[in-house]
Write a structure and sequence with these properties.
The complex is a heterodimer of chains A (about 290) and B (about 325).
Chain A lengths: L1 H30 L6 H19 L7 H18 L9 H23 L14 E4 L2 E4 H23 L1 H11 L1 H6 L4 H26 L7 H15 L4 H21 L5 H15 L12
Chain B lengths: L5 H15 L6 H26 L8 H17 L4 H23 L4 H20 L10 E2 L6 H23 L2 H11 L1 H6 L4 H27 L1 E2 L1 H4 L2 H14 L6 H19 L4 H15 L5 H4 L7 H11 L2
Antiparallel strand pairs in B: 1-2
The chains are: A mainly alpha (about 290), B mainly alpha (about 325).
Chain lengths: ~290, ~325
């Protein structure tokens, strides 16, 4: 029974992890930018849900579209006005730039809303299904389902719509995309906007399942790295697979090795996977 | 005699000035300069792997942390003297870099950056769980009251690392590293054993970073995992090197002076917002001055709006 419980915990957490990394993976796969500010975008999403819930009492799950919209706009502006300016510079310049954005945003959040840990607790947050020694909170199930739906939606968007095809084309071959009339810098901004919107949705969900503070952004970004490497950058499904893999490793690892080594395990796994197969387990280069 | 070129004389003058400096100033300035020399040293060390070899390590803080922990643990647990512990603080990170380098230096670009970041984070977690290293509580070292000594030690570290980079730049190793940075495949075709040179560069980088970490531990007298394995130390190394000019000899020192100076002023004047300012500063530097300040110091370009716009035009989408 214990194993089944750990397995379920891992899978449910993994779905959320998948969504956490989804936007990061999209941006990396298409624009080749490692967005070190991804974690702080997630934190912003969490704060949006928190404040809407605190001030108006609207159900946290209904606030997801709001945080996605706000984060889309923020991401679009950041990409079109800042990151697009250095898109052809050496790669560690983009790393530095996004880290600069991370420092600036994290500290602005710290100054406005303090370093307190917060959490959104709607009335149903304690209840759940429990049979034969297994307990699953409703919130975890709902979070998992939303994460899966958003992953499916992203996949459909990328494969079925004109903009989605333009995004994938830009990721595959930037010159060929340009020759076919794709406005690359606009596509980059849209891609980064979508990546940020997905970060916002992940933040809204995290605010309900975990307590958060302005400074958790860095570790969320690192987790997104690990997930992308595990799942590869190939597809929306890859991020989900990587998320579930990390969720399982973390939940089993913290039971059998102690929670103190939880992050060490995932980072050790990261280095190991990179060295064995530099493109990730399901590795493909682009979103196809 | 070539040694008496005007550049060398002014350099000698600056060195003598800095050697006499502690005699006439308050401990505030001694502390400030000790920190500055430390950052100049570790940025110079990053310059070897990141600037010359073009391998953007985002985990170099791991060598700093290891150096600090080796010094602290050896002094506390084995009652070794500071100089002896410091030797280990250089050697152990160097060996660690050689071992880790065998694996991670096969990766390129983002993947190398991430893997090194992962190594640093994993090492921090492991150190926090080891009793020998004081676990999460950290280690307190015996208190050394002679702060002027640390000034001179850090100053010599900065000099030694800079002279080493100067020598490397003029040697086979330096040429090989630049060749690897420009095109690793082409370098391999020309018969350069890129694995060997990359590992040497990574190990040298670890040596100086570890030494600086060791001195830092004894200087500050208390270390714990979050403070000496802080990612922002790596970021400072990178930003200082870029700010001065990556792949140049004096770049990291120029960058350290500018960034430490600016953060000290921001920290003193605007305690609460100085970190946010630092973020904006990084954004501005990366966009406007991707080649660093050395281009101005050398007189190649003039600090002007048209130069900024040229940089933007060159890198924008």
């Amino acid at each position: 029974m214990l194993h089944l419980q750990i397995l379920l915990n891992g899978i449910l957490l993994g779905g959320l992890y998948g969504l956490t990394a989804l936007g990061f993976s999209l941006v990396w796969g298409i624009t080749n930018i490692i967005n070190l500010a991804h974690g702080v975008f997630i934190v912003l999403g969490a704060y949006i849900t928190y404040w809407i819930f605190e001030l108006t009492g609207i159900d946290p799950f209904l606030t997801i579209p709001v945080s996605m919209l706000i984060l889309f706009l923020l991401g679009y502006v950041v990409q079109s006005s800042i990151i697009n300016l250095i898109i052809r510079a050496p790669i560690f310049m983009t790393l530095l730039l996004t880290f600069g954005i991370e420092i600036a945003l994290t500290n602005i959040i710290l100054l406005t809303w303090s370093a307190d840990y917060r959490m959104v607790t709607p009335w149903y947050s304690g209840s759940g299904i429990s049979t034969e020694g297994i307990a699953i909170p409703y919130i975890r199930i709902l979070t998992f389902l939303i994460a899966i739906s958003l992953t499916v939606l992203l996949h459909l968007f990328l494969t079925k719509t004109k903009t989605g095809n333009a995004i994938r084309a830009t990721g595959m071959d930037i010159i060929a995309a340009k020759l076919n009339g794709v406005n690359v810098s606009r596509i980059y901004s849209i891609t980064f906007g979508i990546g940020s919107a997905l970060a916002g949705s992940a933040g809204s969900l995290i605010s309900v399942t975990h307590s958060f503070s302005p400074t958790i952004g860095g570790s969320l970004t690192l987790k997104s790295f690990v997930i992308c490497v595990l799942g590869g950058l190939g597809s929306a499904g890859g991020a989900l697979a990587g998320g579930v893999a990390l969720g399982l490793v973390e939940s089993f690892g913290s039971v059998y090795l102690g929670s103190g080594f939880k992050d060490a395990i995932s980072f050790a796994m990261l280095v190991f996977v990179l060295v064995i197969s530099p493109r990730g387990i399901l590795g493909k280069e682009f979103y196809r | 005699m070539k040694v008496f070129k005007s550049g060398n004389i002014s350099l000698l003058f600056i060195i003598i000035l800095l050697l006499l400096f502690p005699l006439g100033v308050s401990s505030y300035w001694i502390r400030f300069f000790t920190g500055l020399f430390m950052f100049a040293t570790i940025s110079q060390a990053w310059n070897i792997i990141g600037g010359y070899a073009g391998y953007a390590s985002f985990g170099n803080v791991v060598f700093f942390g290891l150096g600090a922990y080796v010094t602290a643990a050896f002094m506390n647990n084995y009652q070794l003297s500071f100089p002896v512990s410091l030797i280990f603080a250089g050697i152990i990170p160097m060996l660690f870099a050689a071992c880790v380098g065998l694996a991670v230096l096969r990766l390129r670009g983002h993947y190398f950056a991430i893997a090194t970041l992962g190594v640093a984070e994993a090492t921090r977690e492991i150190i926090s769980n080891i009793e020998f290293f004081g676990g999460g509580l950290g280690i307190s070292l015996p208190i050394a009251r002679n702060f002027i000594a640390f000034y001179y030690i850090m100053f010599s570290l900065m000099l030694i690392s800079t002279i080493s980079v100067y020598i490397i730049f003029r040697s086979r190793l330096g040429y090989a590293l630049v060749a690897i940075r420009e095109s690793e495949d082409a370098a391999e075709v020309l018969g350069i054993n890129s694995t060997k040179y990359k590992i040497i560069a990574f190990a040298l980088s670890a040596l100086f970073t570890g030494l600086a970490g060791g001195v830092y531990a004894f200087w500050i007298t208390y270390i714990d995992p979050p403070s000496v394995f802080d990612v922002s130390i790596t970021v400072k190394m990178v930003i200082m090197t870029v700010l001065g000019g990556a792949g140049t000899i004096y770049g990291p020192i120029a960058g350290a002076i500018i960034l430490q100076g600016i953060s000290e002023i921001l920290w003193r004047e605007f305690l609460y917002v100085h970190s946010a300012f630092l973020g904006f500063f990084i954004i501005l530097i990366v966009i406007l001055l991707p080649r660093g300040f050395m281009t101005f110091i050398r007189g190649e370009r003039i600090f002007s709006l048209s130069y900024f716009l040229e940089n933007i035009r060159e890198h924008r989408a």
